[in-house]
Fold these 2 entries.
Entry 1:
Amino acid sequence: MSRLRLVLFGLGAVGLAVLWVVATTGLPPVGTDVHPYRDAAVAAAAAHATANVVSSINFDQRTFDTLGEETILLASVVAVTTLLRPADDERVEPPDPPPAVLPATRLAGWALLPVTLLVGADVVLHGHLTPGGGFQGGVVLATALHLLYLAGSFPALQWVRPTRWAPLLEPAGSGLFVVVGLAGLVVGAGFTAEFLPPGVLGAPLSSGTVLLLNVVAGVGVGAAVVSLLGQFLRQEIVIGPGAAP
Amino acid sequence: MTVLLIIALLATGVAGTVVALTPDPQRQAVTLSVYGLLLGTVFVLAAAPDVALSQLSVGTALVPLLVLLTVRTVRRRGGRSGGSGSDGS
Amino acid sequence: MTLTVVAWTVAGWLVLVGALGIVRSRDLVHTVVALSVAQSGTYVLLIAAGFQRGATVPILGAGGAGSSPVVDPLVQAMVLTDIVVSATVTALLLALTIQIAKRHGTVDPDELRALRG
């Protein structure tokens, strides 16, 4: 049974490998200095005063694709939330009393929280100038909140209670992305078109809508990651009908 | 620079093999994290810091964490898996 | 030359070894992780396609475009999308795995086939 499966895989793998060699021998060598897309993208980024060309592509030149990416993220969060909600035959048990956390661990958690929040905000807000942007910064911001688990501060966790606001903030991020796109349609040349003054290349307030969309995406991605992690973490306190005591 | 990139690429290929062929998902979360780190190194050496940042935050931290949480939940639900080596079939 | 061969081979190898992991899998969590390894082959392929020897990161200095060559930023933007989509797909598949474990009490694909019907 398993042997037959491996033989079938081997046949397919050999076929794919042959096709792969045939396909890649016709490609330009890795490290070539002919990159027509690079030339076009760099010129377009410079025209809109966006220092980080990758951010310019994601949030200016191919904004519509990034909207699609945001939508995939939203759809995934909705699907995971639907799949992991407690079923009729399950019950949610209040968590056990919090385990004792070493004072050093608690201190590390609390000390790292503002630092990580700052780094996340920096990555989002400077995404048009330096490596980073809404997607990377959003993940860092979401990770920062989970340092509260490390600090063992359950009252603080109750207070920020991500399951309350994160599911609302995620669609809000995607919605604002569409609003910025529509603003381009009303004020500028078309849907997701640039409509803010680009400013000076390298200045903190440059790149027009790229900075705005980075912030919107950062909020959306951060909330999405908090929701996703929250759903998986909550499985710890969902008790099924056949669960061992 | 190119030599370093070649070495990093080869290490990534080996690490990817280890991840895909580690039968126990709990160990896999660790090897996946190391693999993500190597992939991030390749991106840094290939002058792609944006991608490296994304790979480090998502591939090295977020996805292995989700895998670990899933393994915990599945094991607690009595989910038998061939990879855990506990079934004799 | 060496770089070309190594980059294309590693990209193709990652896809293949990820697929092999899926075929050999005895645990759906393992299947999902192997799928993400297979998908990461596309990152290597795209980044290698945009690489240029001696070029810098695609971030423009104060001098603007054209001062020094940069690597292709388009493929980097694609890989960024690729990584985020891969993570969301992984999260969705892991949620499905948890649901399967709850409903069937097993995450072994072979046992699941026996349960069906």
Entry 2:
Amino acid sequence: MKQNYNILITGVGGQGLVTLVDVLTKAILADGKDVKSSELHGLSQRGGAVAVYVSMSIHTNPERSRRVYSPLFKKGDADLVLGLDLLEGLRACDFANKETKLIINDYLLPFIGVMPKEEIEKKLQEIGKNNLYFIEASKICKEKMQREILATMYLLGYAVFNKHLDIKPESVISAINKAIPEKYRKMNLQAFELARS
Amino acid sequence: MENKKSNLKCEVLMGNEAIVQGALEAGVDFVTMYPGCPSAEIGDEFGKIAKDYGIYYEISTNEKVALESAVGASFSGLKSLVAMKNFGVNVCSEVLLPLLYTGTKGAMVIVVGDDPGCWSSAQTEENSRAFSLMAHIPTLEPADAQECRDFVKLGFEISEKFNIPVMVRTTIRVAHQRAPVSFEIPNHKSQITNGKFEKNFHQYVTLPPRVLEMKKELLEKTEKIRAYLEKSKINFENKKSKNNKLGIIVSGISYLHTMQVVEEMNLNLSVLKISSFYPLPKKKIADFIKRFKQVLVIEELEPYLEREIKIIANENGIKTKIIGKEILPEIGELNVGLIENAIAKVLGLKIKKLGNSLKEIPAGSKLENLKLEIPRRTPRLCDGCPYWFALPVIKRLAPENVVWGGDIGCNMMTGLAPHNMQDYLFCMGSSIGIGHGVSKATGKNNKAITIMGDGTFFHSGMVGLINAVYNKSNPLMIILDNRITAMTGHQQNPGMGLNGMWQSAPEMNIEEIVKALGVKNVKTLDQGNHGELEAVMKEFLTKDDVSVIICKRICAILDRRQKKN
């Protein structure tokens, strides 16, 4: 029986996925849950498609909870997809099932051979139906904070404040304080809080 | 004084961070490495913290030199850690093999990161465990971040106890895995100049006939270590079951995938995790396999463990059927799905393909249901990368009979669209070595133009260039000097004037080196200067001897970072 909550984060190298997974995994531990994640560095990061897997235990009570073993989960086993790019969000649907929540940044990093935006959105709608949320994270972060890269924290905030991710906001805040260098801490906290409203 | 309990902490660490933690707790003094995925972050971390602990940290010119440097430290009594990616072992194997004969004085752990699936590696899907067998190096395989910390500590203990280097072999899903890790706050401070080389001709000089004695000593030592590991709890049985139909033996990351499957499917199966690939706890394995009718060996890449287990079964007259690669792939990573299928197949269970999925479809994803093909997003040069300026000019001026020599690093992307300037790609530094061979073999039929980065030039490209000059051939060598080793996450190299700890260091001038090697046609220019590049390239293409153009401009990411700070 499935006892883990599986999160797939997809995007393009350079979008800040590594920082996001650092914050998210620390937040899950701060919440008292077990966690494992897997990420990629190097070649695949240079403008390539990047997928980060995070699995957390559902219960905090160690008696009731099984530990998370594998840092990877199966196709069809994602409970939540955080897509930092529309096309990469669509690519992540390989791991989705009909209950999977899809939270997708309304943002497209084009490349030669990319599909038209409308087609990607249409496909996402066919798959996601009522569980699909297009969020203008990059746009909002650019307008309000002049930094698109903070879209990661905004999307995380959206998932947490809308209860798609069972982590206490305080746990995320403590994780940001731990994971992000002082110089960038305040703006990351702000981007996370922006999603509260 | 803090009590021992308050020294304990639990935090989420990445596998590579946990390796650093383990080394700090073991009291490492001397750290060397050559950056490569998936082990680069080990060095990056030491680059930041080495000074605080009085540790010496260097990025060496290549993996061979990194290991040599550590051998010097070990013979001088210091504890050393060496880190590299899988291909690094090929480069340092020349030093590694005799090191097992001489043994170490100060303890030494060598961390090697393999990359099943080639997520961050070109070249080959190398399985470094082959070197464990060839070099007789004790090899520990962590599965999770906690074991990364624990096994590095244990590696230092074994090394200290038996005077032998110990390899800790990770894979990308271990090195780049984040998980809670319990650890102690280290409180030691190194003082590396306290090392003292005590001469020991008998032990450190590998001349025959003594070298054969050394081999005998190594083989004897290996048996002692095997006996030690027979009792070690790193080789353990999880979920001991009375079910005698099937037992499972796993190594490395496969342990985590397997346990996930066993738990989720509520299977009543015994799982033996083997963490010391070399030397193997033969008795523990024999005692395990004889309890079952069948044993499934789950390991990534080549079936090295499976073969050893078959030998152990044979040696002990055990009739248990050993299965593995008949039902598990030898190529690419293993994962929960593949292992679930394999176990189900052996047990004759029918698993519902994707229990949660929309419909019962064969490969079972929504996407395949919708018959949606998503275009591949290949890696590309970053926005503003100076290579964008130079590459089109070089391509336009190249003669029709050009043979493009590719190399490792960001310049690897010359092989992809829109550049398509690669006719072969091997390993660090080989663009020029192979280009020389092409030039010699083809004469006027082809023109070899080779492309290499600055880091690779220092690593091993220089040697190939010497060969081309010495043996009189005429490739045109382009060095794309972006002032840093960029691909692996921006590590310092000898051309930067900075060492591994970001302290100032002598700056190697590539042009002066090239000239000193005897190259007559050499020019350094700015990557953005199309006019000059065009003129120089036209001139050098008429030459009958080796030519080198150094296109110099700082990496765009590094440039932005420097301006921000």
